[in-house]
Amino acid sequence: MKIPALLLALLAVDAGAQGVYVCVQQNGVREYRNTGDTRGCRKLDTESLSSIPAPASVLQAKADPSFPRIDGIVQKRRDQDRLQILNDEIRAEEARLAGLRREYQNGEPERLGSERNYAKYQERVALMKDEILRAEKNIEALKREIGNLK
Questions:
Q1: Cα gap 125→59, rounded to integer Å
Q2: What total of structural domains would you count in the chain?
Q3: Residues in CB range of 104: below 8 A, 6 or more apart
Q4: Range of the domain at 21
Q5: Is residue 22 included in any domain, yes or no?
Q6: What is the DSSP string of the chain?
Q7: What's the whole-model pTM score?
Q8: Which of 110, 140, 144 has the alpha carbon at shortest distance from 125?
Q9: Looking at the domain assignment, is residue 56 inside a domain?
Q10: One domain for residues 78 and 40
Q11: What whole-number percentage of the chain has pLDDT above 90?
Q12: Do 90 and 139 reside in the same domain of the chain?
């Protein structure tokens, strides 16, 4: 079994000068230790691990004022467009919800001719109820999203 490099790096950092040991228990499970009883364990070579620094472009982006930024007016226009889209989605979802509620008729929708079996009718009613709940949750989520914009 290969040891993930990240695990070894974390263990090596935590272990300090003590080192990291792999111990195989009687049931065959491997355990990695840097403290406690390490008798019968094998020390791992963690000296060969190296760290890779973040690319300079990422570090410069945070500190460099010449890094491209979006103009405030452009961002405001984008936010307005997003708000309009979200409002349109709410109106569509509210219209869908109204239609579902009308068809649902407080849990007693009209029975269809293809629903001679009462279980089929109950299944359709349950699906309608689920659709109503889903539409209500969608509206709540859209309203939260609009709240985040303001």
A1: 57
A2: 2
A3: 125, 128, 129, 132
A4: 5-44
A5: yes
A6: -PPPHHHHHHHHHHHTTS-EEEEE-TTS-EEEESSS--TT-EEE--TT----PPPHHHHHHHH-TTS----HHHHHHHHHHHHHHHHHHHHHHHHHHHHHHHHHTTT-PPPPTT--SHHHHHHHHHHHHHHHHHHHHHHHHHHHHHHHH-
A7: 0.51
A8: 110
A9: no
A10: no
A11: 34
A12: yes
The Cα 56–Cα 52 span in angstroms is: 12
Rounded to whole angstroms, the Cα distance separating 46 from 13 reads 9
Q: How many CB atoms lie within 10 A of CB 99?
A: 11
Residue 55 maps to a domain: no
- Structure confidence at residue 57 (pLDDT): 64
Token pair listed for 95: 């219209």
- Measured distance CA(100)–CA(129) in Å, rounded: 9
29-80 pLDDT tens trace:
888 888 777 777 888 877 766 677 767 666 655 666 666 778 889 989 999 9
